[in-house]
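Supplementary Methods, section 5.1.

A reviewer requested that the exact input to the structure prediction be made available. We therefore reproduce it here, unchanged from the version used in the analyses.
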Amino acid sequence: MPMSSSSGDAKRSRPVFDPLAVAAMTVTVVSFAATAPLTAAASAPALAMAFWRNALGFVTLVPLLLLVLRRREVARVARGERGVLRREQWRPLTRGFLAATSLALHFATFMTSTRMTTVAMSTALVATQPVWQAFIAAGQGVPVARRTWAGLLLAVVGAALAAGPDV
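The structure derived from this sequence is encoded token-by-token as follows.
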């Protein structure tokens, strides 16, 4: 016999609908989806758009980093103290610089590709990024699960189908 639903159902919580999260997700999805068509339709040179996209990101994030997250270090640099960067801080700083450089190269090639091919094909090429990341990880000796490779294969096939005859 099934038990009555007295206290068991009352303790179960249903996911709460968060309108702010839904709005943020909607803006994000629409923004990402509009990037390639807007880039292709723009009249500015592709590399100029890539530069300004990176510059806007830099101007947006640096104040947050310097004035909020690293306030003490900025004050020490302003006072002229030597040796502000410790030895263990150079590795993440170098990796951050390499990540920023990779992002700049991504924008430069992506925005140029929207001028050289269709928006669908350009987007399909960008969608291969996780595949390259998996190859890099495997090349560094990080094990990549078969399920991951299967998911990547499925994603690439889906991107190729979405690109249509441009492939």
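The mean pLDDT is 81. These observations are discussed further in the main text.
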